[in-house]
Write a structure and sequence with these properties.
The protein is of the alpha+beta class. The protein folds into 3 domains: 97 residues, Uridine Diphospho-n-acetylenolpyruvylglucosamine Reductase, domain 2 (2-Layer Sandwich); 117 residues, 2-Layer Sandwich (Uridine Diphospho-n-acetylenolpyruvylglucosamine Reductase, domain 3); 217 residues, Vanillyl-alcohol Oxidase, Chain A, domain 3, CATH 3.40.462.10. The protein has 18 helices and 18 strands. A 7-stranded antiparallel sheet has the order 15-12-14-13-17-18-16, with helices on both faces. The chain has a 5-stranded antiparallel sheet with strand order 5-6-10-8-9. Strands 1-2-4-3 form a 4-stranded mixed sheet. The two termini are 34 Å apart.
């Protein structure tokens, strides 16, 4: 990973100088080669590529501090990069700049078994953390599907399949160490589980998508590994019936750990991709955590609710191998969706609504998909009202691209009209900035004032969340 002189010479003088100074600091861990810049200027989304001027593989908080100071002197944008699994263009560099790549900052710094917490560097992934914790009897439950980095999950306020029981990153981050736009280091909170001391800086940075500070350490809540886990699959006669079953399960107070909706098209896709033989109907994947007796009772109560809402054969099991096979298929749903439409590109989006409006929103969305003649499998963390679509778009079909963008806009408008949000967990990034005013109104001006106060030069992931 070496500097490419021809690339640097093409930059404005001050940016070239910034890269020279960063290269002097970290040596061959800075790359400005065309291939590396392209790699970090693309992701799995539909957004146009936007390459950084260089990629810096950082190894410590102090290196981040020095790089931020260099970038501040030369007005150089900084784009934090975790695992690259974000879905709204967060890691693109629309104004150029330097990408800070955190894969080398991947240490678990501390595990407090008695306090059920830990502190990690931002490049630690969720799977890496749970492997490290395996012998402690503890686990970290937030599971967005991809093996995302903890820093990226914190920055995007990630959630996922377990959120209905364990919450999102917002509820599970205790404290953050971050480098601010002037190079100062801030620790947002102590390890105490609650505090009334001052502004809640932790929650301010959770979900800020790298626009307010650069995360270099995260302290997290951990949970005891359940004594027993059971899971199962239940097909339904209708999409509405599946949604209603999920809603009633939550309203009845059943402490379900996961409840995932897959429409019939998505079930067909994962059958083909993961070699399963599930009935190709609108389906719920469910999972229960607790004691042997409690998970049995939860599964039986869910089965009764499902039957009342048109559920067909509900099959559940406590066998870890069978459960893992099903959830692996669920986590591969993006690739399964891509496989049903070779040559197309995935246009991934999500919304979230109050669970009382979930069935209405999902069924209206399905009708809209059919009327718009799109291929768009639906999958959702329906226990908290959140669902996703992976719209398969022919990149050479301008009419289909236009229909897809119009459909996506209607989806967001539908969710907002139902007092929901334009994004339940993907974040705003580049893709959903245009909906911020409609969702937050005057609140966007407050956000803009915060951004300007903390990052007056607009060097921290500029062009994301809000225009300043």
């Amino acid at each position: 990973m070496t500097m490419a002189a021809n690339v640097v010479e093409d930059l404005p003088g001050t940016r070239a100088q910034a890269l020279d100074e960063i290269g002097a600091l970290i040596g061959d861990r800075l790359s400005t080669t065309a291939a590396m810049r392209l790699q970090y200027g693309e992701d799995h989304t539909w957004h146009d590529k936007a390459e950084p001027d260089g990629v810096a593989f950082v190894e410590s908080t102090q290196e981040v501090v020095e790089i931020v100071k260099i970038c501040a002197r030369h007005n150089m944008p900084i784009i934090p990069y975790g695992a690259g699994s974000s879905l709204e263009g967060h890691i693109r560099a629309p104004l150029g700049g330097v990408t800070l790549e955190f894969s080398k900052m991947n240490k678990v710094l501390r595990v407090g078994q008695e306090d059920m917490d830990c502190t990690v560097e931002p490049g630690v992934t969720r799977k890496q953390l749970n492997t490290y914790l395996r012998d402690t009897g503890l686990f970290f439950p937030i599971d967005p599907g991809a093996d995302a980095s903890i820093g990226g999950m914190t920055a995007t306020r990630a959630s996922g399949t377990n959120a209905v029981r364990y919450g999102t990153m917002r509820e599970n981050v205790l404290s953050i160490k971050a480098v601010m736009a002037d190079g100062s280091i801030v620790t947002t909170a102590s390890r105490a589980r609650k505090s009334s001391a001052g502004y809640d800086l932790t929650r301010l940075l959770v979900g800020s998508e790298g626009t307010l500070g650069i995360i270099t350490e995260v302290s997290l809540k951990l949970y005891g590994i359940p004594e027993a886990i059971s899971g199962g699959v239940c097909p339904f006669k209708t999409l509405k019936g599946a949604c209603d079953a999920a809603i009633e399960t939550i309203q009845m107070g059943i402490p379900i750990a996961r409840v995932e909706l897959l429409d019939a098209l998505h079930v067909k896709a994962i059958n083909n991709y993961s070699k399963l033989t599930l009935p190709e109907e609108d389906t719920l994947f469910v999972e229960f955590h607790g004691t042997e007796a409690s998970v049995k009772e939860q599964a039986e109560r869910f089965g009764e609710i499902a039957k009342d809402n048109g559920g067909l054969d509900f099959e559940w099991s406590s066998d870890p191998e069978e459960r893992n096979r099903l959830w692996a298929a669920r986590h591969d749903s993006f690739w399964a969706g891509m496989a049903i439409a070779p040559g197309r590109r995935g246009f991934v989006t999500d919304v979230c609504v109050p669970i009382s409006r979930l069935a209405e929103c999902v069924t209206e969305t399905k009708r809209d998909i059919d009327e718009t003649d799109l291929i768009a499998p639906i999958v959702g963390h329906v226990g908290d009202g959140n669902f996703h679509l992976n719209i398969m778009v022919d990149p050479d079909d301008e009419d289909e691209i236009a229909r897809t963008k119009a459909f996506s806009g209607r989806l967001v408008e539908r969710a907002l009209a139902m007092e929901g949000t334009s994004t339940g967990e993907h974040g705003v990034g580049l893709g959903k900035m245009k909906y911020m005013e409609a969702e937050h109104g005057a609140g966007v001006d407050v956000m803009r004032q915060i951004k300007r106060a903390l990052d007056p030069q607009n060097i921290l992931n500029p062009g994301k969340i809000i225009a300043v």
